[in-house]
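Q: I have two molecules that I believe assemble together. Could you output structure tokens for the complex as a whole instead of separate predictions?
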Amino acid sequence: MIVRAPHVDDDGLLDVYYTARTGEVPNPRTAEHLADCHDCQARYADCARLLDVARAEGDAEADEIFNADRLRAQQLAIARRLEHVGRAARVIRFPAQFVARRMNVTGRTGLTRWVYGAAAAGLVIGVGLTALYDSEFHRLQRNRQLAATARPTTTAPAAAVATAGTGATMEAADEAFLSDLEVALERPQTPELRELDALTPHVREGLATNR
Amino acid sequence: MSNEVQTALHHGVENIDAPALRSNESAAAGVAPQRRVPVSEDSRLATEVRGLVERGALDDARDRFAALVAAHQRRASRIAYQYLRDAAEADEAVQDAFVKVFAHIGSYREAWPFEVWFTRILINGCLDRRKARARRDRWFVSGETTPGDELRAANASPPDTNPEARLLARERRARLAAAIDRLDGRQRTVFMLCHYGDCTPREVSAMTGLKESTVRVHLFRAARKLRGFLGGKS
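A: Yes, here they are, computed for all two components at once.
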């Protein structure tokens, strides 16, 4: 009685597939069974088709993106980068143009500093002169007042008599004007509120009543 | 990306020659190394560039290095693009990887293929970028694809295909990208390297520091999940 070898499992099929692809020798028992068994051959074909399609699709996609032009560009980029490998770091010289510009800027800063200095000096001088002028003005005014008080006082009583009558009248008129003003200010300016104000007792009236 | 893979991949450029050192140590101890990788053309070229750099002939080294760039940039761009899904970022990641390789060419050991060394550096860069992007997306409005990329992708389609075919192709690719993005970090890394980077599980093991059997487990799980996401049997 001939006992047939059991079917190859999935791992066995995959092993055959990958060993065949890399050129290695598959397990002889598996290979022998696969050569005889139609079921396993069909399963193997199914498995290999799927993996072949996956590989072909993946490779095609990558090859379409990394076409000949792109690979050439990649080679050039690698060559450029390799130029710097093994070389000491290059010290980049400071650009002369920038240095010149910086120097100009420095000159301009010096000028600005002079301007600031002159402005500060002007301010100090101005304040000093103002203080001097102020003290001189006060001194002159004081002298004038002193001179005025030192003049003869003979005209003063006559002037006082001449203004004595009108002074009281003026004071009364001023008093009346200020009183009117005070009343006017105490009352509301809005016409609608005046009647309401008339009905409302005032503090001033209350105080007068108490007195 | 899981922590284990992150730390495994983030050993950095300095530790990238660790497998070679182990191989030399075993040779010094009188034990034959388990695997002798035949020196490929690009590994020989990398060794030559290293010699030129050590002698101080940088211009010659750059000229020779250009051949390495030309040989690996398409594959590197595919891997970086599948990882980052952004053309500009993938371009920068590839450039950074080549510049880093040239700057650290002195630490290259020919016991392992140049391709393995370079891919590890590239993947480290891509992982860093993904991490930075995740950090950015936490604070800013995220954008999976930039409008520029969409436009570029639309324009990049062959002009002879009809609009319907182009639209269908875009939809298929978007589904595929979304499915790959749903894989967990370790599975995605292994799947990317094996499926798009044509690396063997042994090479991925050297790149990531994971055991070869673990790499196989992650690869198969990723492939099974992908089949499930894309409508096949999981």
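A: One point stands out. Residues 58-84 of chain B form the longest helix (27 residues).
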